[in-house]
Write a structure and sequence with these properties.
- By secondary structure, the protein is of the alpha/beta class.
- It contains 20 helices and 15 strands.
- Helix 7 links the parallel strand 6 and strand 7.
- The C terminus is likely disordered.
């Protein structure tokens, strides 16, 4: 299995190369050069597997055994997923009127990011130890990614993590999960801007190949292919559990499953597209909040950023630059890297692109979408509680709104992705008139000391932030060398 850039400038990279990269050198995103097919026979063989075992099977398709032997891969995945709060790591809850919710939030930071992040960090550490190397991870976060990266990598002697989050645009719990980590290898910045603002200096830093190569700079956002790879597994798991596929009827056509996804950076939607390309008959629905660029792109072909990112009750999807749509376009356009390069470069330069008629037709026939405002989030949260005594996080409510407002064929099963625990969104629950008991680990955050640095909004903020982060990357690398020399 080899990897290429969606923009055509890079081919033939292996998994290890891609793992240690952010964006590809040509500005694109890494994808497998070929998308393997899952046969009905393979799916039936997998139908009884636990989630960790399924992750191993999926990962082994994309990670050759020459890079990570199967035995090592099995140990890494099971170790990464051993600390989750439910026995099978993720859980399906079936509620009234066919409302099936796939809970993906039972890791340390109570968000779905923990699933892929813990595995990705294990893969990273595996190669670093084997090669006696070190790396610097640079992460921009809209709320959950930063905390998950910190929790997964804290204390690792070969890795420094630099996280940037948008001050005032995430919940207190999300913020405290980041700023209360005082490990020497964790460096947190609070920026006066949006998640999309943060992405601009990060793109510049990853485009500097001298910086990337000199300091082992890499990303753990869903830019990183390994994150997307692990997320394939929960779509396949949902299909095996909910589609109604009959294990002993080999000649029956595979039934369809509709999966509804709360969408921001579009990493989960990209993973769902890949699984669909692998042969699973999925109907994908991307649900967004007031930051509706994905919805506008699907419904009218208008791939245009709004002037500003709107702050909503679902902050992790307050995004106007859904960067993983580049992977979606690449899949839709049958790996036409020239077309993808044209789309993305125009979009990044002008913050606007209108899909060509054939491009829009392909997208709208493959993906459905919807948009939900804050009142819709609150109303959905209340209704789900009243009918099921089940509490939704606001992002999950964005998805579940679709259940209450979009009738569907009862012969087609539906699944809604629950991407975070409601425990992280107490203020929103209070606005909905609901209570949710905080886990002890969340309550304890209030008593912990904190540490972070500010990135102020200046007249030339993008350049200033880039320089501050560049200096941090250089200084933590030097400090790490000194620490290693001291410990020796």
């Amino acid at each position: 299995m080899k990897y290429c850039s969606t923009r055509g400038g890079v081919h033939g990279w292996d998994f290890r190369d891609v793992l240690f990269s952010g964006y590809a050198p040509d500005g694109g995103m890494f994808m497998p050069e070929t998308i393997p097919t899952l046969t009905p026979e393979a799916l039936r063989c997998w139908s009884g597997l636990s989630y960790p075992k399924l992750v191993v099977e999926v990962a082994s398709i994309f990670i050759p055994s020459q890079l990570i032997p199967r035995e090592d891969l099995n140990v890494l995945v099971h170790s990464a997923l051993s600390g989750f709060a439910v026995p099978d790591v993720i859980r399906i809850v079936q509620l009234k009127d066919g409302l099936s919710i796939l809970e993906l939030f039972h890791g340390d930071t109570l968000a779905f990011k923990d699933l892929a992040m813990t595995c990705t960090v294990r893969f990273l550490n595996y190669f670093l130890q084997r090669e006696k190397r070190r790396a610097t991870v640079l992460v921009g976060t809209s709320g959950d990614t930063g905390g998950s990266a910190i929790q997964s990598a804290k204390g690792l002697c070969g890795v420094d993590v630099v996280v940037v989050y948008p001050r005032g645009r995430i919940t207190p719990v999300q913020e405290k999960q980041m700023i209360t980590c005082l490990e020497d290898n964790i460096h947190v910045f609070a920026a006066d801007g949006s998640s999309d603002d943060i992405d601009q200096p990060l793109r510049h830093l990853f485009a500097d190949q001298e910086l990337v190569n000199s300091y082992g700079l890499m990303s753990l956002n869903s830019v990183n292919w390994s994150r997307i790879l692990i997320q394939l597994a929960h779509f396949i798991y949902a299909y095996l559990q909910l589609s109604g596929m009959v294990q002993d009827e080999a000649h029956q056509p595979l039934p369809e499953l509709e999966v509804v996804v709360p969408t921001g950076g579009a990493g989960n939607i990209a993973a769902g597209f890949i699984v669909k390309k692998m042969g699973l008959p999925l109907k994908l629905v991307a649900m967004v909040n007031a930051n509706d660029i994905v919805h506008r792109t699907v419904t009218s072909g208008d791939f245009t950023m709004a002037r500003n990112v709107t702050q909503t009750l679902a902050p992790a999807i307050d995004i106007q630059d859904p960067y993983n749509m580049e992977r979606v376009f690449w899949l839709l356009l049958e790996r036409d890297s020239a077309a993808v390069k044209n789309i993305m470069e125009e979009f990044q330069q002008l913050h606007h692109y209108t899909l060509l008629e054939n491009q829009h037709k392909l997208l709208s026939h493959t993906l459905s979408s919807g948009t939900v405002n804050d009142e819709g989030i609150l109303a959905t949260t209340r209704r789900c509680w009243e009918e099921n005594q089940y509490v939704l996080c606001p992002h999950t409510a964005v998805a579940v709104w679709h259940h209450y407002h979009c009738p569907h064929d009862p012969a087609v099963k539906r699944c809604y992705l629950a991407t975070a625990s409601p425990a992280k969104f107490q203020a929103t629950l209070r606005r909905a008139g609901l209570n949710f008991d905080l886990p002890d680990a969340i309550e304890a955050l209030d008593k912990l000391p904190s540490r972070f640095q500010n990135l102020e909004r200046t007249s030339d903020w993008c350049k200033d932030w880039e320089q501050r982060l560049r200096m941090t990357i250089q200084s933590v690398s030097s400090a790490r060398i000194n620490r290693v020399a001291f410990y020796r």
